[in-house]
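#lab-general

N.A. 3:47 PM
ok so I finally got the sequence cleaned up, no stray characters, all 294 residues accounted for. can someone with queue access submit it? mine expired

B.Y. 3:52 PM
send it over

N.A. 3:53 PM
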Amino acid sequence: MNENERRTAEVTERDLSEVRKLIEERTGILFDQSRERFFSTRVREHAREKGFASGAELLKAMLRANTEYEAMLEKLLTQETSFFRYPAVYQALEKRILPELQIKKFWNNPRTLRIWSAGCSTGEEPYSIAITLLDTLSLADAWNIEILATDVGRQALKIAEAATYSAQRTLSVSEAQFASYFTKVNEGQQVKPRIRKMITFAQMNLAQAVYMGRMDLIFCMNVLIYFSEEKRNALIQRFYDTLEPGGYLLLGHSESLSKVPVKFQAIVLNECILYRKPLPGDLQQPELVTEGRA
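B.Y. 4:20 PM
back already:
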C-alpha cells in the first residue's frame, strides 16, 4: 500500500460523520445517504491532497482555521456549470417572464428590476441572466437593474468576480453575444465591464436569514437538493416572502415544490416549471397551469 492509499484508508466512518455534522451545523447543507459515496470520496481525496495523515487531523484543521473549513466545503460543493446551462429556463425568462415584468413596471419611475442568483457558484448564471436582460428588455439602459449573486464558497466567488471563462464554459454563447459582451483574453473570454457592473457578488450562507429587500426574480438552481426538508421549507418560505407579488422563483430540473406548504402558482412551460408568487387578485387561480410553447 502506498502513502496516498494509507492516508485515504485512515479517514474513518466516525471522521466522516464528524465532518458531515460540522458542515450541516454551519451551513444547513446535509449530505444524506443518497450522497454518501460522493461525500466519502471527496473527503478522502481532500485529506490526501492536503497531506493530512488522518480524518481526525483534517477535522482538527477545519475547526482551527476557517480557511481549511472553507477549502473542504469548496471541494464538496464544486459542480460543473456553464453559460445558459438550461436553455429552456433562459427561453422562459426571455419570452414569458421579462415581457410580463416590463408591462407590470412600465409606468414605474424609476423602472427597477431586482434579481437574486442564490447559489451562483463561479458566476456563469448571473452573467447569463444579465446578458438575457440586455438582449430582451426594451431600452435596457432606462432600467435600474440590480443582480445580487451569492454563494457560500469564497473561491467560487473569486472566479466569478474575475469573470474570465474557458471555451468549454461558453459553448452556448452566440457569436453576437461574444461580440457585444465579451473580450478575448489569453485565458479565454472575459465578461465586459458593462455586464460586470450590473452584478454584486457576496458570500452568503443561505441557512442564515439576511434581509435584502424585495426581489422580482430569484434563481436557485440545484441548491435545494443540499438541504434537509426542514431547512428547504424554511428557505422556500424566505424566497416567497422576499419576492414581490407576481415575482418568480426558478429551480433546477430535479427540484420541486410539490410537497412544500408555501403556495406558489406553478406554471409548466415547455421543459421547465416557473413558480410565481400570486398577486392579490390571483388567489382564486389554479395552483398548476400548463401553458403553450415559450
